[in-house]
Structures are given as C-alpha cells and as structure tokens.
UniProtKB/TrEMBL annotation:
Its cofactor is (R)-lipoate. GO terms for cellular component: cytoplasm; glycine cleavage complex. Pfam families: GCV_H. The modification N6-lipoyllysine is found at residue 65. The glycine cleavage system catalyzes the degradation of glycine. The H protein shuttles the methylamine group of glycine from the P protein to the T protein. The gene is gcvH. The glycine cleavage system is composed of four proteins: P, T, L and H. Keywords: Lipoyl. One of its GO terms (biological process) is protein lipoylation. This is Glycine cleavage system H protein. Residues 24-106 form the Lipoyl-binding domain. Belongs to the GcvH family.
Length: 131
C-alpha cells in the first residue's frame, strides 16, 4: 500500500491537500499517483494569480509513460507554485508529500475541503482499484 499521511485530505483524482495557513492550501499528487505515472520529467503549472475551480485541470505532469492532467481540489487563486520543479521535476517522485508539491491556492469556500477524502477514505478508494 502506498504511503498515505493522515493529516492530509485527498481527491479521487489522486491529489493531496494540506492547509498551510488560514485560507491557503498546498497541493501535490499522492504517492500512489506518482508510482502509477513513473518518472516525472516535466511539470506544467499555472501562473500566480490564476483563478481555479474545484475539479478543473490546472496543469499537467509529463512522465516517461504519459502526460496527465492535475486537478484543482478547491476553488480559488494560485498564490505560489513550486519553481524548483522546473529544474528537478523528479521531486514529485522522490518527495510527493514534501518538496515535490505543485501549487498553493488561496481558497474561497472552506466547505470544499469537507468534500475531500480523509486518509482512510483515500486508502479504501485505492484498494477498490479506482483509476
């Protein structure tokens, strides 16, 4: 079973969400997702100030296997992106819950966080073979 930290929230699209400060979340992809994708070679992320809607794509990750979209877990505005991924996209693989984060979002609706999965829910979702 992939590592699933209990302090995070998760989407059915395999993104994780960490509240970093009041009204702001940091977003990345899960350990399960990075293992499925294989070696990440490029990350295309939105510019700061980009408005996002929950469930909509905000960028892509390119691996040796495929290019896949990543989705906004909450609605809001991009306040930061992980510029280190420009030179070291492999951090998404080696540290998916740490230095391999993707973006930060100032979210507009706290209730959207309540719709995300907790660690137990996400683990069950993976076990069910969700794609």
């Amino acid at each position: 079973m992939p590592h699933v930290p209990n302090e995070l929230k998760y989407t059915r699209d395999h993104e994780w969400v960490r509240v970093t400060r009041d009204g702001v979340v940091r977003v990345g992809i899960t350990d399960h997702a990075q293992k499925e994708l294989g070696d990440i070679v490029f990350a295309e992320l939105p510019a700061k100030g980009t408005g996002l809607s929950a469930g909509e794509p905000f960028g892509t990750l390119e691996s040796v296997k495929a290019v896949t979209e990543v989705y906004a877990p909450v609605s809001g505005e991009v306040t930061a992106l992980n510029d280190e991924l420009n030179d070291s996209p492999e951090m998404v693989n080696t540290e998916p819950y740490g230095d391999g984060w993707l973006i930060e979002i100032a979210f507009t609706d706290r209730s959207e966080l309540d719709r995300l999965l907790d660690d137990d829910g996400y683990e069950s979702y993976i076990r069910e073979g969700a794609e």
